[in-house]
Amino acid sequence: xxxxxxxxxxxxxxxxxxxxxxxxxxxxADGDGRISREELEEALRSLNLWFAWWxxxxxxxxxxxxxxxxxxxxxxxxxxxxxxxxxxxxMSQLEE
Length: 96
Known about the structure:
Layout: H1 17-25, E1 35-36, H2 37-46, H3 52-63, E2 70-71, H4 75-86
Antiparallel strand pairs: 1-2
InterPro entries: Centrin_CML-like (IPR050145), EF-hand-dom_pair (IPR011992), EF_Hand_1_Ca_BS (IPR018247), EF_hand_dom (IPR002048)
GO molecular function: calcium ion binding
Domain EF-hand: 15-50
């Protein structure tokens, strides 16, 4: 018997920063408060985006300022901006 994990969907319409952060946190598999490329890829796959692996790689290249292979701290603001600009996620406000 296969087990499937179900994730909460990203809210429709404009998404606040808090809603985006809460949605993304469910993909933090190891619970360290950071989002790895693999976890980001899983989040993008849940949105049924084509080429989720490539988009996750591009997002990490764009937002991982300290090159620790994870989105953490101040980099979250950069991820919100990337999602708005490149993944067409509608945000009602952006933190920088």
